[in-house]
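Backbone-to-sequence.
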């Protein structure tokens, strides 16, 4: 089972924290929070991988993610999509 949260009102990490309390260790995310919900037009984007990885690391949960490289990739992707 995996948690999948949209960052509606900035609440995605609250859902992750609750999921962790219930034993979830797998969470969906998207670089820079790209995407949304095809079933709810205008829905907030997906949980940002950058936020998720930093949050998990702050809880001393190893992710194996290089946060600096992830941030660089997210910035590059946002710039490409803005063109």
């Amino acid at each position: 089972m995996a948690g999948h949260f949209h960052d509606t009102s900035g609440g995605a990490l609250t859902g992750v924290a609750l999921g962790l309390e219930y034993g979830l260790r797998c969470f969906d995310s998207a670089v820079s929070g790209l995407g949304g919900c095809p079933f709810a037009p205008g829905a907030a984007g997906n949980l940002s991988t950058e936020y998720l990885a930093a949050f998990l690391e702050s809880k001393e949960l190893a992710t194996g993610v290089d946060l600096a490289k992830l941030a660089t990739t997210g910035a590059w992707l946002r710039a490409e999509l803005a063109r």
